[in-house]
Amino acid sequence: MTGVPLLDEVALSADRCIKCNVCNTVCPVMPATDLFPGPKYCGPQAQRYRLAGPEEAWVDYCNGCGACTRACPSGVRVAELNARARAEIVARGGLPLRNRLLGRSELLGRLGSPLAPLANLGLRRPESRALADRLLGIHRAAPLPAFSRVSFRERFRRLPRPAAPRTTVAYFHGCSTNFYEPRVGEAAVRLLERCGVAVELPRQHCCGLPLISNGEFAAARRYAERTLRELLPAVRAGLPIVATSTSCSYTLKAEYREVLGMWTPETAELAAATYDLFEFLRERVWAGALEAPRGELRRRVLYHPPCQLRSHGVGVPAADFLAALEGIELAESGVECCGIGGTYGMKSEKYAVAQRIGRAVAERAREHGAEVVACDSETCRWQIQHLTGLPARHPVELLWEAVGSAGAAP
Amino acid sequence: MPSPRPPYDVVVVGLGLAGLTAALAAASRGARVLALGKGYGTTHFRSGTIDVLGYLEGGAVRSPRPALSALAAARPEHPYARLGGRVEEALSFLRDAARGGGVELQGGLDEAQLVATTAGTLRPTCLAPTSLLGAWDGARVLAVGLQGFRDFDPELFAATLPPVAARLGLEVAVRPARLSLAPLLRRHLDGLGLARLLDRPAFRHQLAEALRPLARGCTLVALPAVLGLEAATAAALATELGPAVELPTLPPSVPGIRLQRALERALRERGGRVQVGAEVRLECAAGRARALELEAAGRRLRMPLRSVVLATGGMASGGLRLEPSGAVVEPAADLPVAQPPGPPGRWFRERFLGSCDQAIDLAGVRADACMRPLDAEGRVVIENLFVAGGLLAGAERSLERSADGIACASGYVAGLEAAAVEATA
Amino acid sequence: MTRSYDVVVVGGGATGTGLVRDLAMRGLRCLLVEQGDLCHGTTGRFHGLLHSGARYVVRDPLSARECIAENRVLRRIAAACVEDTGGLFCWLEGDPEDYPERFLAGCREAGIPAEEIALSRTREPLLSPRLRRAFAVPDATIQPFDLAAANVRSAEAYGATVHRYHRLVGVATRSGRVCGVEVEDVRGGERERIEAGLLASAAGAWAGRVAVLAGVELPMSPGWGIMLVLNQRLCRAVVNRCRPPSDGDIVVPVGTVCIAGTTSRTLDTLDRYETSREEVDLVLTASAEMIPAVREARVLRVYAGARPLYDPGADRAASRALTRAHTVIDHARDGVEGFVSVVGGKLTTYRLMAEDAADLACRKLGVEAPCRTATEPLPGSEPGRHYWLGKRLEANEREREGADADLVCECELIPRRMLERFLESSPDADLEDLLRGLRLGMGPCQGAFCSLRAAGLLQRLRPRAGLEALSPLVAFLEERAKGNRPVLRDDQARQHRLNEIIYREVLALDHALAPPAV
After folding, report:
1. Interface B:C, Cβ pairs < 8 A
2. Which of A266, A248, A280 is nearest to A169 (CA)?
3. Of C253, C282, C305, which marks where a domain is finished?
4. Do residue A24 and residue B4 have CB atoms under 8 angstroms apart?
5. Do B360 and B348 meet the contact criterion of CB atoms below 8 Å apart?
6. Chain B hits for A38, Cβ within 8 Å
7. Residues from chain C contacting residue A40 (CB–CB below 8 Å)
8. Fewer CB atoms < 10 Å away: N or C end of chain B?
9. Is A238 an interface residue toward C (CB < 8 Å)?
10. What's the mean pLDDT in B203-209?
């Protein structure tokens, strides 16, 4: 019903479960709500029954952080199994309007951005939020972003290009950079320029992650196919696809294949060519093709690596670059998940769960005396701002702040 | 183009006891360390104790120190024989590191200590957290089962412990009790959930209040091993309740998690980096481990290496794999593996709980005194790669109860050796 | 007062329980004795298949005809024990060219609906790329323990008495006629003499032993076969090979697992069958020809069952070639009146075997009563409402009242209350009985977690003194491990090592029942 191939390698990975419970020990949702039986139950355990198509309820409380898959010593794709089970629920029982809306971040962006000041006012007013809470199920206090009047793509034309670029990349900005936080994209392009990297902006649309997270697989598949059509020409021209949103890049690298089950040469091609921005820069540093950008940033920064960055399996490259900045007092959160789970923590029935999960980040920020929190994923940033009251920035913004003021490239 | 520089001095593959000890040892020598792995070894299954040598030739070991020497003399292929006197050094190092992370381990090589389990058995160990140690001789025990927690039935414990203790010359009386408190009435309550509840002073107080009348006339309250994820919880409870002991049970092991997290914390504090979820292959050529290949999303990531510790574990952790073809292999670096002796049909003992040898246990990677991997002829296979933990050949861990001691000692030596490897041009 | 029955039935497998039900429904006073738990013998160790009969259409058309008829009956009367999986016969590249036509012709003759379906419509994503033709037949799968238990409940409702753990130790005859039996309570040791008008043996592979007690020789030829339990369902339907039957050519989805099998070896033993790695590999290789994923799949355990073949011609070599059809024997021909045996056959035709045996028994007792077992549904079964795999998960998902925290067996989704209820109705049940009745310990962890919990529950409800409290747990773990050992590799070897860590290194059970340490 979801179009996911039955008994593919993700489904068969459930075979490896030795019921060790390690996934349960890292799940951030289990301690925060009584309604989630845990990744072991919802993942490989329930999987043995799914050929019969039973009706499930509790798997919907999984917030998709992926900690279970990461921690599993046996190689079970627990989070992916959960995501597919959720899609089964949707395929069977339909999707509330709220989830349809939340799944379409690009549409929301296109509608809200031109009307930015007004739209933002609307989003801030307690009355409209209360209404949205009651009618749609979007929690009144959910950390929603503000629309940007001018999109990133519009700003891109005015950004500098390196005179003699050493290499060129294709930038995948994602919906949030384009419609909510164009300054992230700006900082990225400027930093790359400073590193001698030219940036091209291919035609692109939403990667489809919010659709995947909400279980709307048919639409997600269409978005995936469109993304492939739009990005593969750049890939085949030898351009790496570089993204600042670790959620978008994870979608391109893994979710099309492992969650949607699109095991094609094209998705593999795209995955192999996709990089997180700092992953890309670090690889060039390791290869000796780039000197790590220098700069000064005398601030107390807490870095929170997003779940989806950790699922990339490349470590925390942004932290390495931040740590090299002069004067920075950097600490890592050490917290598994900030709670937001993409659109999960915006939902009325899940908001409190998300807040409970993310409390630890606020505590860590307090302990460290942080002035600013750095995080590579947009929804995490909004959640962390909400939890801590501190500004949350993409690491590239902080890097650019330090590097930008330090003068021209070597 | 300049040749790629290894970003870390020492990379440790494996986040269990051996891996973390190795990483801490390397960090203690100033190395920049990356510790990565899939899962946390067997720490989350074991009891947070350090079993060095529990049984030798079928008999319980009263004093590990002389027993270790006897074992080393009798079995020169055994990891303990290779490691010699460094076992004690390693244990001391581990104890300090654990303390730094908040976990206090008691005991030493002079005298084995007894730990009671939820099955009502008593087993010897070398180092144990205070909360697992009880004064058993002459004890009048209140064994408390908690509503909603399914991994401890005090009735079973109460029936079994007295005769088990009697066989060891100890007199123990046990009274079972079951407690139902409002916060326990949840849909999903596992050991971790219970431990988190106990971390809260209000719940601890409630529990102590409810237990006090039941515990009258008892010298010891026995609870399942869920006394908090925070190291201070068990002691705080004992303050309110009187002497209390926690009993190891089925995974997830809360004391095991405490220890693993304490060691991980200690490593992070020393500047080590930890990455979970990493599936790793090692690229080796001409007797050197050149690079690490990480199975990252969408792509393999190649990281140049200076030195590496392979602490991927034994068969439970996937560090050794028994293939359908019948061969035992080491999948990360494809190191030569000493195969189990005898025909495959006899590799596993007849009785699951039997006391005879089990050939499969002896399989693994052979190592020299510096924990460098050896081939069948005893030659070092790779210069800058060191092996530690469950991966090592020659030990019947299940019979001897030696897994933790081997992990700790081999990890310690491997970590020190790895840190001493010079950077190559 | 000596107990007295019209008929004493020996054997608590499908045939025996079916027979005692049939007789009780016909108004006879019956006692069934079974030396172990229900399905202790072959019934508890069979492949799980409710044959459509298609497998036999070419070589054994009589068997095929019986199968399809009983397949329909059992779907009606035992719906709750039957899963309507359907079956597929797969003809692969390289298989005998002429077989499909003979197969189809045979199905037509036997009245078995067989339809060729397009390869794109098999609904089986894991079938071999060498598949060339596929035929759908009405195979189904059946849960034997549930079936036997339901027959027993029905029999008891009709006044029969059923004694498990009672072994037949003697048969009393007077003037060449059976007049009674002697049974021994296996657990307590007490013996009892019981009067019987007729002795009916449905003892399967033990039929020869029973006959000896009555002074009769009955040559049985146990045809052993192994079955491999694979952790996940790799197919929706029963997958068969469309060629002459041979080893390892069926993969059967039963409950949460699928079972690959089987082999065929005549061995004159009733319970000591050693499975070799070669035999395991044989089955895996053959099954993997149809479903390549079997090669990589996790094998949980292996078990062996003995086909109770009656061998009047003493041709022990060709076990498979012996007819699978059953035989009802009136031992008057051997000089003993009042003694009948029903042997051979297969689980699919158990009810028919029981009917034939009951018909004979009634004739001998001068009772005229028609058989109604084909029309009256078994307790718990409603025609059309079949067993389905998702039942326990859905029940657990709907459960909102705290019991979820009490899943004793997580793999098979067995909550505490289910165990407690079972123990209430079977007061002397041990962990093995719980396994058979509820599937405790049958999942991938093979008892790693549920053993300790169930043992604790058992001790709470049926306390044993001192170290005896650990006996059920130890016995259960050993029994599980016995079936794991021959197939340990990859993930199951990992599981085994984890289980060792838990029960030896953490819980120290290996020294619990051992003599004191030096």
Report:
1. 174
2. A280
3. C305
4. no
5. yes
6. 188, 190
7. 410
8. C
9. no
10. 95
Residue B120 φ then ψ, to 5°: 85, 15
Q: What's the domain range around C226?
A: 85-139+221-305
> Chains with 3 or more CB pairs closer than 8 angstroms to A?
B, C
Residue C464 is assigned to a structural domain of this protein:
yes
Contacts of residue B187 in chain A, CB cutoff 8 Å? 34-35, 37
User: Which residue in B has a C-alpha nearest to residue C298's C-alpha?
Assistant: B324
Q: DSSP string covering A115-182, please?
A: THHHHHHHHH-HHHHHHHHHHT-B-TT----PPPSS-HHHHHTTS---SS-SEEEEEE-HHIIIII-H
Domain total for chain C? 2
Specify the CATH architecture of the domain A300-404: 3-Layer(aba) Sandwich (3.40)
Which residues in chain B have their CB less than 8 angstroms from residue A271's CB? 297-299
At the top level of CATH, which class does the domain A9-93 belong to? mainly alpha
How far are the Cα atoms of A100, B18, B377, C95 from residue B380, in angstroms, in the given order?
61, 21, 9, 52
| C406, C300: one domain | no
Separation of alpha carbons B64 and B406, rounded Å? 13
3-state SS of C414-454 is: EEHHHHHHHHHHCCCCCHHHHHHHHCCCCCCCCCCCHHHHH
Contact between A6 and C391 using a beta-carbon 8 Å cutoff: no
- The answer to whether B303 faces chain A, any CB pair under 8 Å, is yes
Q: Which residues pair with C174 in a beta bridge?
A: C177
Which of A45, A47, A50 lies closest to C410 in CB terms?
A45
In a domain, C76, yes or no: no
d(CA C84, CA C137) in angstroms, rounded, equals 11
Of C406, C452, C488, the CB nearest to B119: C452
Cβ contact (<8 Å) for A272 and B318? no
- Whether residue C253 is preceded by a cis peptide bond, meaning omega within 30 degrees of 0, is no
Residue B216 is which amino acid?
A: R
The pLDDT assigned to C516 comes to: 44
Tokens of A312: 């990339």
Q: Contact at 8 Å (CB) between B14 and B319?
A: yes
Question: Residues of B with CB below 8 A from A23's CB?
Answer: none
Residue C269 clears pLDDT 90, i.e. is over it: no
* Cβ distance of C460 and B153 shorter than 8 Å: yes
**Subunits with 3+ C-beta pairs closer than 8 A to C:** A, B
Q: Strand pairing partners for B294?
A: B280, B301
Of C305, C325, C360, the residue at which a domain comes to its end is C305
CATH of the domain at C257: 3.30.9.10
ipTM value for the complex:
0.97
Asked if residue C317 has pLDDT above 60, the reply is no
- Taking CB atoms and an 8 Å limit, are B34 and A254 in contact across chains? no
Per-residue pLDDT of chain A (410 residues; tens, 9 = 90+): 788 888 899 999 999 999 999 999 999 999 999 889 999 999 999 999 998 889 898 999 999 999 999 999 999 999 999 999 999 999 988 999 999 999 999 999 999 999 999 999 988 999 999 999 999 999 999 999 999 999 999 999 999 899 899 999 999 999 999 999 999 999 999 999 999 999 999 999 999 999 999 999 999 999 999 999 999 999 999 999 999 999 999 999 999 999 999 999 999 999 999 999 999 999 999 888 998 889 999 999 999 999 999 999 999 999 999 999 999 999 999 999 999 999 999 999 999 999 999 999 999 999 999 999 999 999 999 999 999 999 999 999 999 999 987 765 44
Which residue in C has a C-alpha nearest to residue B60's C-alpha? C517
Question: From the candidates B147, B161, B250, which should be mutated to test the interface with C, based on the most C CB atoms within 10 A?
Answer: B250
Is the minimum CB–CB distance between B213 and chain A shorter than 8 Å? no
**Distance (Å) from the C-alpha of residue A93 to the closest C-alpha of chain C?**
15
B45 interfaces chain A, CB cutoff of 8 Å: yes
Is C253 part of a structural domain of the chain? yes
Domain spans of chain A, in order of start: 9-93, 300-404
Confidence of residue C514 (pLDDT cuts 50, 70, 90): low
